[in-house]
Specification:
This protein has three helices and eight strands. It has about 140 residues and is α/β, with parallel strands linked by helices. Strands 1-4-3-2 form a four-stranded mixed sheet. A hairpin with a 5-residue loop joins strand 2 and strand 3.
């Protein structure tokens, strides 16, 4: 058993694809035409970090209720966690790409962490190993 996809509600597909692939470095796994339950056109868009099994389904908001959830899927909490091998390089690349960090890097017992916003406004932890944590853990 595994979690295959997690849906992230976005305003529009193309800017979300550009953010996750161009800024975060995810792979575009699928971008296929699809239909809503009532027959309207939509897209099935899946991105995921290179080598990862779990992906994100980028779901365009459909209706007022979903539009209200864009950027607030977990009620203002950090709800997504992106672990990287080279924290400093990822932080620098993301900062240079204009990613908004709401909390800068800090050391925690589990490693380094900084909180950033995705294109929709959801909070993510950028996570990396601390200098004192062996890389083979």
């Amino acid at each position: 058993m595994r979690i295959d996809l997690v849906a992230v509600i976005v305003d529009e597909y193309d800017p979300a694809i550009a953010f996750f692939t161009g800024v975060l470095g995810f792979e575009l796994v699928e971008d296929s035409p699809s239909l809503t339950n009532d027959g309207r056109p939509k897209r099935w868009v899946v991105v995921r970090p290179p080598g990862a099994q779990t992906g994100l389904l980028l779901a365009r908001a459909d209706g007022e209720r979903q539009a209200a959830a864009v950027g607030d899927q977990v009620a203002g909490r950090v709800g997504f966690f992106l672990r990287v091998d080279d924290f400093d390089a990822a932080y620098r690349r993301m900062t240079e790409a204009g990613v908004t960090f709401v909390r800068g890097p800090r050391a925690e017992p589990y490693g380094r962490v900084a909180v950033f916003l995705d294109i929709a406004g959801n909070r993510w932890d950028l996570l990396g190993l601390s200098a004192t944590v062996p890389h083979d853990r």
